[in-house]
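*** Fold description ***
***
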Amino acid sequence: MQPLAEDLAAAFTKKNPNVKINVAGGGSGVGIKDVAAGKVHIGNSSRKLKDSDPAGLVANVIGYDAVAVVVNSKCPAIKVVKKGLSKQQVKDIFTGKITNWKDVGGKNASIMVQSRTAPSGTLDFFSEEVLNKEAVVDTAKKYESNGLLKQAVTQNKNAIGFISLGYLDKKVVGVPLNGVAPSLKNAVAGKYHLVRPLIMVTKGKPAGLAAAFIKFAQSAKGQKIVAKKWLKAKK
């Protein structure tokens, strides 16, 4: 959500030069907690609101995002992972049941799992949709943002991680799941299923400047920005 919010804020303030919008990261849980506490006007989240979240919050969907499993371009099993892994294989890797690349058809090398720190919407979604809420293996290294996790994967040929599709580029290799590559095209077509909502959370119905900014994000101009790396909000 952070890079998307920054892009939307830049476009909105260009249109409204007297307005200033501050965008800060920290994870979906932080955004939701802070907006509930009245510390911010909008809490950005890349996960749905939960029953355990504070009452009275409103989820304003501005788009959708896919989550991609990624490896280093020199991964010991690169020929295999480029063709794809099954969802079960990915689950077994991240929960510690598969610990060596040779166990998925690669060379003999330990798999270095990279994960996100909590509270992270990306982690919550990945845990629910891929791991069936099982815990990530204890040996996993954890990072506070998609950008830091992606950087860690680029620096370790044995690494595997998961990031927002908006961060996917040629620096890492996106792993097809059950034969379907993680791409905007496949996500839009409904072929790639690891898709989650991107929401701007408000305490109660959005009002004032917050309402104006969310309305812009959901407008045709805002959705054009969303569609560059993410999926448009469904109508």
Observations:
- The radius of gyration is 18 Å.
